[in-house]
């Protein structure tokens, strides 16, 4: 499975011949200025919640690619107002898509759309792909509900926020890794804003001390998982 990091909490995975893009926020991210959003392909776009730093580029990418946009019902309501018709609203639970089974799970955060309307409840995803199973928590603090994740899937890797202030910090993400029983973690949602700057070497050392591996791909980098 290929994983490409586009900065902040935006990434794509390629599995089963499909490209799945998560939380597109590129053109307004100064750290991702070298990424040409018009070259990013997608068959599916998944949105964890409604904040602008997770949905800013969904309209342009969805219109160009024709990707199916999957998100909470309230987020989809806003997406449709942007002129996107290929959508699939969900709420917490499990749904089957062409790329595999998808769990949408609660996250402890907030969710407001860029126009101020409600984004419903924020969430995260477990993707049960043919090649790998992974969990993307979305923006969240540590929650006891994360201990349910291993009941749903034996994870190959997980994507967790590590920047703190708005989400988990590094130390809390280590606890989350324990809860979800996953040793290979990809860190996201850090360094984009002043509030969420981290020391990458210290972060990796903190994970290593707990017997985990923290991967921090460069923006635009593709890694094999």
Automatic annotation (TrEMBL):
Signal peptide: none annotated. Pfam families: Lactamase_B_2 (PF12706). It comes from the Bacteria. Gene3D superfamilies: Ribonuclease Z/Hydroxyacylglutathione hydrolase-like. Keywords: Hydrolase. Residues 7-189 form the Metallo-beta-lactamase domain. GO terms for molecular function: hydrolase activity. InterPro entries: Metallo-B-lactamas, RibonucZ/Hydroxyglut_hydro, UPF0173, UPF0173_UPF0282_UlaG_hydrolase. SUPFAM superfamilies: Metallo-hydrolase/oxidoreductase (SSF56281). Belongs to the UPF0173 family. This is UPF0173 metal-dependent hydrolase CJD36_019315.
């Amino acid at each position: 499975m290929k994983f490409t990091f586009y900065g902040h909490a935006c990434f794509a995975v390629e599995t089963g011949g499909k490209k799945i893009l998560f939380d597109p926020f590129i053109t307004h991210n100064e750290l991702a200025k070298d990424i040409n959003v018009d070259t990013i392909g997608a068959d599916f776009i998944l949105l964890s919640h409604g904040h602008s730093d997770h949905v800013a580029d969904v309209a342009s990418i969805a219109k160009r690619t024709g990707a199916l946009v999957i998100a909470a019902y309230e987020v989809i309501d806003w997406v449709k107002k942007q002129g996107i018709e290929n959508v699939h609203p969900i709420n917490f639970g499990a749904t089957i898509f062409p790329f595999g089974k998808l769990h949408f799970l609660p996250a402890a955060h907030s969710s407001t759309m860029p126009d101020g309307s409600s984004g419903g409840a924020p969430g995260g995803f477990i993707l049960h792909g043919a090649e790998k199973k992974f969990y993307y928590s979305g923006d969240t603090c540590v929650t006891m509900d994360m201990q349910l994740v291993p009941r749903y899937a034996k994870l190959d890797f997980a994507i967790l926020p590590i920047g703190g202030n708005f989400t988990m910090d590094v130390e809390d993400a280590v606890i989350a890794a324990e809860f979800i029983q996953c040793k290979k973690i990809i860190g996201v949602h850090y360094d984009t804003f002043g509030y969420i700057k981290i020391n990458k070497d210290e972060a990796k050392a903190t994970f290593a001390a707990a017997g985990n591996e923290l991967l921090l791909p460069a923006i635009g980098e593709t890694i094999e998982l």
